[in-house]
Specification:
With about 170 residues, the chain is mainly beta. It has two domains: about 80 residues, Elongation Factor Tu (Ef-tu), domain 3; about 60 residues, PRC-barrel domain (SH3 type barrels), CATH 2.30.30. The chain has two helices and 13 strands; from the N terminus they run ββββββαβαββββββ. Strands 11-10-9-8-13-12 form a six-stranded mixed sheet. It has a five-stranded antiparallel sheet with strand order 5-6-2-1-7. It has a two-stranded antiparallel ribbon with strand order 3-4. Strand 5 and strand 6 form a beta hairpin. The longest helix has 6 residues. The two termini are about 30 Å apart.
């Protein structure tokens, strides 16, 4: 598990006064404004103040950013919070950061690969699995039926994939 967890990103500028557009990845979207935010390596912090909700995110002010050009320069910046600031995950809930890198085994114990990333396209989470025996990555629905076991302590998850998914 990592000390920093991805909680949002800066999508670019909003207006001409230096405000930015923020996408929140938090379960309660506005929670992002209660965290001490940093970049991926923790070398830069961002004091974000909510201006107002906008379509697909929030308009916010970032301390030290006063112009549209400075806001545009932050486009694509991922925002992280330290794990100790975040609430504990409920039963059968997981932070995406904790799933990435886990070994993926089938119900017979055969290693299929590792979790490369977790995606959420609105219809449910997908695990992107990569492995040396796989020609391409495989997208596995992250549901209880397909992924009956998540063992964070053991660094693995067990999948019961639909027929032909890993062929």
């Amino acid at each position: 598990m990592t000390d920093l967890v991805l909680v949002g990103s800066i999508a670019g500028s909003y207006g001409v006064q230096g405000d930015v557009r923020i996408k929140s990845f938090c379960a309660q979207a506005t929670d992002i404004f209660g965290y001490r935010l940093t970049n991926a390596d923790g070398s830069r912090s961002f004091d974000a103040i909510l201006v107002r909700p906008i379509k697909n995110g929030f308009a916010a002010q970032i301390g030290g950013v006063a112009t549209k050009e400075e806001a545009d320069a932050l486009r694509g910046t991922e925002l992280y919070a330290s794990r100790d600031q975040l609430p504990d995950a409920e039963e059968d809930e997981y932070y995406y950061a904790d799933l990435i890198g886990l070994s993926v085994l089938d119900t017979g114990g055969t290693v299929l690969g590792t979790v490369k990333q977790v995606m959420d396209h609105g219809a449910g989470d997908l695990l992107e699995v990569q492995g040396p025996a796989l020609r391409d990555t495989v997208l596995v629905p992250f549901t209880k039926a397909v992924v009956p076991t998540v063992d964070l302590a053991g660094g693995r998850l067990v999948v019961d994939p639909p027929e032909g998914l890993f062929d």
